[in-house]
């Protein structure tokens, strides 16, 4: 079961729309923790929190469903985001659903090597491989003094 929720300010009606497969109370605690520390990813929501205070916010379940595909979940969440956005009450940083499409992921992976300084480019991988040739592979393991003494006694 997936729940689409609104974390809303009761004073202004502004709301952050989200989606969770977990318990709604746990997700509310996660939002509160981020907002209390001033580290929430939605700046509008953070501003509302700072202005109106913690006591004015509540978590509301908008829709509960058993969607089979990511596209169905995204469509349901997007419907609610559009509803709040047309009223001017959406606090989300982006006016789109929670996850990038598969095409966007493939495009990002394909173009990652074009970004300067990306360590996964062919040139950098070759350079790193050449730098490691001939070096012992201890995997960073350190031998304690006790083990060293036992080895010396054998």
Q: Count of helices?
A: 6
Main beta sheet, described? 3 strands, antiparallel
CATH class of the largest domain: Alpha Beta
Identify the CATH architecture of the largest domain: 3-Layer(aba) Sandwich
Q: What structural category arises from helix and sheet content?
A: alpha+beta
| Integer average pLDDT | 85
| CATH H level, superfamily name of the largest domain | GIY-YIG endonuclease
| CATH topology (level 3) name of the largest domain | GIY-YIG endonuclease
Tell me what you see in this structure.
- By secondary structure, this protein is an alpha+beta fold.
- It has six helices and three strands; from the N terminus they run ββααβαααα.
- The protein has helices spanning 24-36, 43-52, 70-86, 102-111, 122-132, 145-153; strands spanning 2-9, 15-20, 57-65.
- The chain starts with a strand and ends with a helix.
- The relative contact order is 0.14.
Short description:
With 154 residues, this protein is α+β, with helices and mostly antiparallel strands. The protein has six helices and three strands, in the order ββααβαααα. It folds into two domains: 2-99, GIY-YIG endonuclease (3-Layer(aba) Sandwich); 100-132, no CATH class.
What key attributes describe this structure?
about 150 residues; alpha+beta; GIY-YIG endonuclease; 2 domains; 6 helices; about 45% helix; about 15% strand
Give the helix/strand layout.
Blueprint (H helix, E strand, L loop, with lengths): L1 E8 L5 E6 L3 H13 L6 H10 L4 E9 L4 H17 L15 H10 L10 H11 L12 H9 L1
Antiparallel strand pairs: 1-2, 1-3
């Amino acid at each position: 079961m997936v729940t689409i929720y609104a974390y809303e300010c009761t004073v202004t009606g502004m709301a952050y729309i989200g989606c969770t497969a977990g318990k709604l109370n746990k997700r509310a605690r996660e939002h509160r923790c981020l907002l209390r520390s001033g580290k929430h990813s939605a700046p509008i929501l953070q501003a509302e929190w700072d202005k109106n205070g913690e006591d004015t916010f509540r978590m509301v379940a908008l829709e509960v469903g058993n969607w089979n595909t990511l596209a169905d979940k995204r469509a349901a969440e997007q419907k609610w985001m559009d509803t709040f956005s047309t009223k001017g009450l959406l606090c989300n940083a982006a006016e789109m659903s929670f996850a990038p499409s598969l095409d966007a992921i493939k495009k990002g992976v394909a173009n990652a090597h074009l970004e300067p300084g990306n360590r996964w480019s062919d040139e950098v991988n070759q350079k790193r491989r050449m730098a490691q040739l001939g070096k012992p592979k201890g995997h960073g393991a350190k031998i304690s003094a006790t083990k060293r003494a036992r080895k010396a006694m054998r």
